[in-house]
Amino acid sequence: MKHKKSSSSTLKTNPHFFKFLFPDAFAILRIPKKFYKHLPTVLPKRASLVTQICKIWRVNVHQNEEGICFSSGWSEFVKAHDLQLGYFLLFRYEGKMVFSVKVFDTTCCLKDYALTPCEPKQPTFESSKMPNLKCWTGGRQQTACNRKNSYTLGSEKTTKRITGNTDPVTECERTIAQYHISSAYMNFPGMFCKQNGLTSSRTMKLKDSENHVWTMNFNYNSFDGRLASGWINFTKKNGLKVGDKLKFKVLAPDTMLVLRCRRVRDI
Questions:
Q1: Is it true that domain 156-262 has CATH number 2.30.40.10?
Q2: What's the pTM value of the predicted model, to 2 decimals?
Q3: How many CA atoms are closer than 13 Å to the CA of 134, on its beta-carbon side?
Q4: For the chain, which residues make up each domain, given as ranges?
């Protein structure tokens, strides 16, 4: 498999490219055309992605008239790393079709993977075929097992610490982003939904601190769960603004408690 642009086999510096996660980037991820000059003249059929938790993932490399992209295996990478709409991914090319990947969530900060994502079955790498690289963590190699951070879901942290048990995390904090208002929905990470059995569409009751009940539709797909119809009325009645922080707690499969943790002051 060939592409038009060629490059020198020696990389003096590690080239980078970044991608924002829009809806069309969950099935495949297109590599920017300007980046092609850094890739081998004859493209291998597969690439390797090394994340900040030091896991190695294999994805297929596909080329057509629209360009070069990561195809088969990419959607599994997305699910395992709980990637959400609006996330920012930074790719650093290590050579030999190996990319180090940093994931930034909607807080614009590095996503904290305090738990190791489930890794799909894949062939073991031969060390002689891999470039000499360390996990991209500021020069120090780190793994998930030696971190003592809060368990992160989506763009916000939950209130539980990792204690070795498998109890579901029932609370999730979300910061209101512009798309939560303009697109009229509130989304929750897929991992959070799976842990609480929220894996199908249903009618959801949202209770506030004053025991008011708001009824809205809850929709689930393989990437996340969303409060949709009825959400926009909730935001208007409660005067929610971008930057407000809410805490959601699952009380039952069809009921959530919502509390406002922080309110943005009027300017």
A1: no
A2: 0.46
A3: 6
A4: 16-146, 156-262
